[in-house]
Amino acid sequence: MSDATTPRPDPTPEPAEGPPPAPRSVRRSLASIVLGFEVIVVFLAALVIWGLAPTENGTFGFPPWVSLAAGGVVILGLIATIGLLRHRWAFALGWALQGLILATGFVNPAMWFVGLIFGGLWWYCMVVGARIDRDRTAAIADPEQEQE
């Protein structure tokens, strides 16, 4: 027999049966955006704190490299939280990280401003994201309801 007469299986897979996947939470999307930007800002802030530290005794008597290590730990916490946002408790972890970033104002006073800005963004994203998710869920549950 030749290859021309041999039937070949269809290379396109059949679509999976079942309901379509649930839409991603707006609250989760907004939280990951805020945390992603915070990774960049915390990295730059750690460099600033390290660069401003005295060479002999750094901030609070610690060596200057401690600010880089602490910044790295906070960055790892932010990145881990982005990955864990599928769990409800990760939003509380996000709040804790906002408090930690705000507390870095004791090390560098400019971080009070940065912490307040990102804390406000986090609060806004939590409130508005939850409201949009509630409205979306209500619209899916009752599609005949007129939207305002």
Automatic annotation (TrEMBL):
<feature type="compositionally biased region" description="Pro residues">
    <location>
        <begin position="8"/>
        <end position="23"/>
    </location>
</feature>
<keyword id="KW-0472">Membrane</keyword>
<feature type="transmembrane region" description="Helical">
    <location>
        <begin position="112"/>
        <end position="130"/>
    </location>
</feature>
<feature type="region of interest" description="Disordered">
    <location>
        <begin position="1"/>
        <end position="24"/>
    </location>
</feature>
<keyword id="KW-1133">Transmembrane helix</keyword>
<feature type="transmembrane region" description="Helical">
    <location>
        <begin position="30"/>
        <end position="53"/>
    </location>
</feature>
<dbReference type="InterPro" id="IPR025327">
    <property type="entry name" value="DUF4233"/>
</dbReference>
<dbReference type="Pfam" id="PF14017">
    <property type="entry name" value="DUF4233"/>
</dbReference>
<protein>
    <submittedName>
        <fullName>Uncharacterized protein DUF4233</fullName>
    </submittedName>
</protein>
<keyword id="KW-0812">Transmembrane</keyword>
<feature type="transmembrane region" description="Helical">
    <location>
        <begin position="89"/>
        <end position="106"/>
    </location>
</feature>
<feature type="transmembrane region" description="Helical">
    <location>
        <begin position="65"/>
        <end position="82"/>
    </location>
</feature>
